[in-house]
Design goal:
Blueprint (H helix, E strand, L loop, with lengths): L1 E6 L2 H15 L8 E6 L3 E7 L2 E5 L2 E7 L32 H4 L6 E2 L2 E3 L9 E3 L4 H10 L2 H6 L4 H6 L8 H30 L9 E5 H6 L1 H9 L10 H4 L6 E3 L9 E4 L3 H13 L2
Parallel strand pairs: 2-9, 9-11
Antiparallel strand pairs: 1-5, 2-3, 3-4, 6-7, 7-8, 10-11
Helix pairs in contact: 1-10
């Protein structure tokens, strides 16, 4: 059985591979990295020999079967993937859940009752309709629900308790801790997916991109410091700079490299069009 997994941010990852290969004077087929594309929407990708082999934010799973009856009818929704990895979405829930789990026995006294033999809650209040619950999951979750803001810069600033109220500080601290935990969950597993097939010396490093990835000095430092035990050494001066299309943020002697690569999805899209149209 063959399995193909389509994911988001493909143009970004392709742009990063091209830029890093050029910077390292290597062929794109020789690039082995773990990328964290962090913005309003975010995902991580494991890239081996210049090609994606896994992604945290799938858009659809496609099974290759000879019989159409065996093919899945539904793919994954954009809300699936990282926990709290979208500024407004809860990325651990399927937005169809309220509809799929709604009992079919009818409504009595303002509450749904369990149909015979059906899984689901004994009573579900009708105060939260399907449309409302979808709006809640897709628009009022994520960082917005945890911190009360979608601005990651604001969240970082509120980690300093002297700059905001106690409630704002507590909510920002929780949001940052959850964000970091989910980021590490994917980055670490992808790093070890590469390490299981090649020595550390062949891995080009961990790459940060997107608005948060390119500007999040504290976040990059906290992630890389978790990999000190395999030789990652952050260069605080280099990490503090916010200029340069491709810049290394670890020390020269660091065994695991850290990079910031400014992604250019528009340029990548134009390049694909140029190749397709042959001009």
């Amino acid at each position: 059985m063959q399995l193909r997994k389509y994911g988001f941010h493909g143009l970004s990852y392709a742009s990063i591979v091209t830029s890093l290969a050029k910077h390292l004077n290597k062929k794109e087929e020789e690039i082995n990295i773990v990328v964290a594309h962090l913005g309003s929407g975010a995902s991580s990708c494991c890239i081996k020999n210049g090609k994606s082999i896994d992604t945290s934010k799938p858009s659809r799973l496609v099974y290759t079967f000879s019989s159409p009856e065996l093919r899945p009818r539904h793919g994954s929704h954009p809300a699936r993937g990282f926990a709290w990895w979208h500024s407004i979405r809860n990325n651990r829930s399927d937005y169809n859940f309220p509809r799929d789990q709604r009992p079919s026995g009818g409504r009595r006294g303002g509450r749904y009752e369990r149909d015979q033999g059906r899984a689901g809650p004994e009573q579900v209040s009708d105060s939260l309709s399907q449309a409302s619950s979808q709006w809640l999951i897709l628009r009022q979750s994520g960082l917005q629900a945890l911190a009360g803001t979608t601005n990651f810069g604001t969240i970082l600033s509120r980690l300093d308790a002297s700059t905001c109220s106690k409630e704002e500080h507590d909510r920002a601290s929780l949001a940052y801790a959850v964000y970091l935990d989910r980021l590490l969950a994917f980055v670490s597993q992808y790093l070890f997916k590469l390490l299981s097939t090649m020595p550390l010396e062949k891995i080009d490093g961990i790459v940060f991109s997107g608005g948060i990835g390119e500007k999040g000095v504290e976040l990059r430092r906290d992630v890389l410091n978790k990999f000190k035990w395999i030789g990652a050494e952050v260069d605080d001066e280099a990490n503090g700079k916010n200029k340069g299309e491709v810049r290394e943020i670890t020390k020269r002697e660091s065994k695991l490299k850290g990079w910031v690569v400014e992604t250019d999805e528009e340029k990548q899209c134009a390049e694909l069009a140029r190749r397709q149209l042959d001009f």
